[in-house]
Amino acid sequence: MTNLLITLEFPPQTGGVANYYYHIVQELSRNCKIITLTTPNQPFITEDNLTTSIVLRRPLLFTKFWPKWLLTLYQTFKIIKSYKIKLIIIGHILPLGYVSLIFKTIFNIPYIVCVHGLDILAPQKSKWQTFWLKKILKQAHCITSNSNFVKLEVIKLNIPADKIIVLYPGSNILKNHNQRPDNANANANANANLQTTQNISPEIKYRTKHNLTENDIILLSVGRLVDRKGFDIVIKSLPTVWKERQNVKYILFGDGPEKSKLQNLAQQIMSQSGKPHHIIFPDSLSDLDKEYYYKLSDIFIMTPKELKYDCEGFGIVYLEASQSELPLIGSNSGGVPEVVLNNINGLLIKPDDINETAAAIIKLAQNQTLRKTLGQKGKQNALEKFQWTQEVSKLLNVIQNT
Questions:
Q1: Alpha-carbon gap, residue 330 to 351, rounded angstroms
Q2: How many whole angstroms separate alpha carbon 302 and alpha carbon 114?
Q3: 373 pLDDT exceeds 60?
Q4: pLDDT in tens, 264-286
Q5: Angstrom distances, CA of residue 64 to CA of 8, 69, 94, 350
Q6: Phi/psi of residue 243, each to 5°?
Q7: What structural domains and CATH numbers belong to the chain?
């Protein structure tokens, strides 16, 4: 039986969702036939060897014609005919759920929906989208969620709990991520830049670039620069932190629509505090860069906000940080408490709370032994609890019994 995954996010796109589907495909392809239909790469290619299975890259959404997803319907129809698809897995419930629902209705092809949080909450702003959201979920053969929190959000839509399986991300993201063919050039270039001077470790080069000393406590955030991540709360907490620990420096690694706003806020905070170089926005954002920033940092922080129609469904970056034995600071929001375990691998604080954020940073900055203990337990927890093979086996079992 040949299965088809349709997703709008897939490497070389970066981010947690793209990585999530990459690893799912890698695991499934060892045990069943799977084809991935996703958006074009740059430069445009129609097929690649990114994974051990077939990846077809096609335009999926019209730019001027409505509904945009009719192009996905057309592309999917051609693939179903060519490859005799028996099961569809969709990575974005809207708009791709419309496509899977049509093929279920007309050709009786079952489909599985993968959900992450935002894709469940955001459509509920609209009664029209909420209607289709529920209909697509109810007609699905199975639903996977990336956390128990997201599973509960799906249940609130009157979907039976036994129809939903929790499929956590795996912890071996960084190790496998750098083996991806599509990252070879970017990482090779980054590595070449790092190796221009022999006998100097990459960590020292990054420290030199950003004027970081061995005595500095490096606070790191990684993620898309959007409001829900709470990076502005971290920045606003730093003046309080600096009153206790002047050597704390904050690296915010990422890009997104809030970047200019965050940079302006950071500049204002640094100017007012007399700390002109204590908040850093790296200009190079390759995967290899990210890995080295994890290695040179002392504390990882991401404190997502509680928003009505948006949430942090899980937070793959917490697992990445744990691989580098970093203690975690997260907020008690969304699926974060499922990966950040208070006083075990990190500290959980209230979302949107500047004072609690500052207190957590100070607590870890002042206690090297605590940082080391939480970091070691975090790595152990990530490697024991979050394994791709184990998680994807749940989905494989559903596929093989469909």
A1: 8
A2: 24
A3: yes
A4: 999 999 999 999 999 999 998 88
A5: 18, 11, 18, 43
A6: -65, -25
A7: 2-170+387-400 (3.40.50.2000), 196-385 (3.40.50.2000)
